[in-house]
Each structure stands twice: as structure tokens, then as C-alpha cells.
Amino acid sequence: MPSLTRIIERHIQELLERNGEESVFLSRKDLAERFGCVPSQINYVIRSRFTPERGFLVESQRGGHGYIRIIRLRMKKPEERANHIEELVGEVISEQEIKKLLANLQERKILTARERLLIEIAIRFQEQLCREMFDLSPFKREALHAELLKRLLRSIVLL
Amino acid sequence: MPSLTRIIERHIQELLERNGEESVFLSRKDLAERFGCVPSQINYVIRSRFTPERGFLVESQRGGHGYIRIIRLRMKKPEERANHIEELVGEVISEQEIKKLLANLQERKILTARERLLIEIAIRFQEQLCREMFDLSPFKREALHAELLKRLLRSIVLL
DNA sequence: ATGGATTTGGTCAGAATAAGTCAATGTCGC
DNA sequence: GCGACATTGACTTATTCTGACCAAATCCAT
After folding, report:
1. What is the CA A18 to chain-centroid distance, rounded?
2. Among A116, A152, B38, B61, which residue carries the largest CB count within 10 Å?
3. Is B158:B74 a contact under the CB 8 Å cutoff?
4. Mean pLDDT, rounded, for B100-110
5. SS3 for B135?
6. How crowded is residue B156: how many other Cβ atoms within 10 Å of its Cβ?
7. CB contact under 8 A, A118 and B71
8. Mind listing the pLDDT tens digit for each residue in B52-95?
9. Taking CB atoms and an 8 Å limit, are B114 and A2 in contact across chains?
10. Residues 6 or more apart from A50 whose CB is under 8 A from it?
11. Residue B36 C-alpha, separation from nearest chain A C-alpha, in angstroms
């Protein structure tokens, strides 16, 4: 059974999907009522799902006629996507973060499942090598992962 | 008598088989209860059986409504399988040979251009690492290339 | 025009839940 | 008895959901 958060997330995504809108206006209060939850749950959904990392911007306004607006960013130029990925990966990245990042990129159709699999294997192999053969510190390993991951993603995102 | 790990592995595979599902959602807690073991046993089963090298992707989430999702990747066209990866690659392989092999696989539509690029970059990065950071002999480097290449190709080509 | 009432949304911390890690230990085939 | 594979449990980390309290925009009576 999916979590409430998941359900609300999907609902918002459907609204965005509809007509390929680039943004939606939501009422926190109404949403909370509709899904039978406390209003701050909506903030949680937004904070955890509609982040800049996932390609969204959020605006809001309080008071009468208040709203929450969710904007989906479209990165059309390959160079933009490459920079975006550069930021996402950073200088150092844990395997947990890598897995989440790859799942997310697949969700966004930036990667296919097969490409994701290849990347996971390449990273795992490097991890094994650096740990067992060269006895590198966790920090160095994570730095090398970040470097490899950036090169891999950059190359195919630019294609 | 088969080990518990095998039994649980079979169970998960059956769930995947059912209706040819591409993925299953599991509850670690429930599985452990059902098979009368400690929850971390499930992690062991997954770590040892449902690896990317065997064509599986695993996603998971902790906390409330947590889950473990196992995704099985499959080739669309079984006739396009490239067997004999072992012989093609061998124990040692030069970058020249790798390039030729990959070009050939792409020609035969077994790899996409993007997948080929990923593999080339992974190999090149490893080459650089082994040469500049660890000063490995050419022979050792070629042996590691062969190992990485086999893992990558086996997973994606033999699904 | 103004200021209090009303209407919204924001923040934060805590409880409950569930998965991950790791190292110690056990088991089985050779 | 050794080595690989399997099992266990103590400890760690992450996610969801809620509610009390805060902040801002608008409304409206004067």
C-alpha cells in the first residue's frame, strides 16, 4: 500500500501532466482536506518530492487567496542538463546517494534501465577495486565515484 | 536441504515470475517474519542474489511505508543475445580490441550508441586510475579491463 | 486609510515505523 | 581443519505523519 505522501505526489504530477502544463497552482488547505491529512503534510510532500534536484521550483503565497505553485523545469539544451548533473553529483557522493540519483534520472527519462544498470556495475567494480586492491579511504572512494559518475552521465546526456 | 537463503531467493523469483512482472515490492519485515529469520537475512539474500551483475536493480526506502523493490531487466528480443562473451573478451584485452568489439556489438544492435559510450568511458577511467594513481603494469591493467568489460557485457547482453 | 479579524501557508520537533550496516558466529563440503 | 557461504543481533539511519506554534496577505468595519 502506497504512502499518503506517494499518493499526493502522484496527484500533483498528474495535474502537471495534464496538457503538459509547466506549472500548477495548489491550495494547501484543500489538498489536505481532500486527502484527509494535516496541512503540513503537503509541505512534507513538496519538500521531499518537488525539489530543485528533481527539477522543480516552488512559489507560494500566504493569506486570503494564498496558493502553492509548482513549476517543472525543462532543460532543453544538453549543456544545461550536463551542468545540472554536475551539481547533483558534486565532488563526493555515497553509494546510497548514487542509487537514489540514478533511480530519479530514470524516472525522469534521462536514463534507460539498461544504462542505469551499466552505471551501477561500473561503480560497484570501482568500489571493489578501490577497497580490496588499493585500500583507499571511504572519502577517496567517494570522490572517485563522483568523478566516474560525472563522466559517465555527462557523456550520454550530451549525446 | 536448501538453505534459507535459497528458499527466500526462490520465493522472490516466483513473485517476479508471476504474470511476468517486471518488479516486486517486498516488505523486509514481513518477509523475515514469514520465513522465521532476522530481517538482515533479507539483505543478505538480496546482496548475494539480486545484484546488477545478474540483471537486477534494487530500490528501497526506510521508515514508514518502507519497502524493497526488486526490478528485473530483460532483453526484448532473445535472438539478439550475444553468447560467448567469455571467449570474446578473454582474460586480458587491449583497448584497441575493446573498441573493435564494442563497435561490432553496436553494429549488431546489441548495444545502443549510448551504452557503448558508457562502457568506453568506464574502461577509460579505470585505465587512467590504474596507470596514474596505482602504477599498475600494462598486463594487470588489461586483465582488469577484461574483468570489468565482462561484467558489464554479461549483465546487459545475457539477460 | 487603518487596524483587528480572518484566512492561508511555513517551520519545527517528536513519535512511530522500517530498512541498512557490520562484525561475530555458525555450518557445511572438501 | 579450512574456506566459503549463511545466519544472527546490536546498533544506525532514514521516512512518514502529526500537531502546536509562527508569519504573512487579505478583508472589512469604522
Report:
1. 21
2. A152
3. no
4. 92
5. coil
6. 24
7. no
8. 999 999 999 999 999 999 999 976 665 566 667 777 788 889 88
9. no
10. A9, A12, A56, A58, A70
11. 23
Q: Which three cell numbers stand for residue B43?
A: 539483505
Is residue B146 exposed (0-12), middle (13-18) or buried (19+ Cβ within 10 Å)? buried
Task: Round to whole Å and give the CA distance between B118 and A37.
Answer: 45
The pLDDT-based confidence of B159 (bands split at 50, 70, 90) is low
pLDDT in tens, B85-94: 777 788 889 8
Query: If we measure between CA atoms, which residue out of B57, B56, B26 comes closest to residue B41?
Result: B26
Q: What is the largest CA-CA distance in chain A?
A: 63
Of the candidates B120, A109, B68, A89, the residue with the CA atom closest to the CA atom of residue B128? B120
The Å distance, CA of B68 to C1' of D15, is 14
Share of chain A above pLDDT 90, in %: 87
* Grid cell 484527509 in the structure block, residue: A36
The band of B117, judged by pLDDT with boundaries at 50, 70 and 90, is very high
pLDDT in tens, A98-157: 999 999 999 999 999 999 999 999 999 999 998 888 888 888 999 999 999 999 999 999
Q: What are the chain B neighbours of A152 within 8 Å (beta carbons)?
A: 118, 121-122
Distance CA A131, CA A124 (A): 10
Say yes or no: Cβ of A67 under 7 A from any atom of strand C: yes
> What strands, in cross-sheet order, belong to the sheet with A56-61?
A23-26, A67-72, A56-61
Interchain CB distance below 8 Å, B122 and A152: yes
Residue type for B52, please?
P
Residue by residue, DSSP assigns A80-147 as HHHHHHHHHH-S---HHHHHHHHHHHHHTTSS-HHHHHHHHHHHHHHHHIIIIIS---HHHHHHHHHH
- The spacing between the Cα labelled CA in B66 and the C1' in D6, in angstroms, equals 25
pLDDT-derived band at B158, boundaries 50, 70, 90 = low
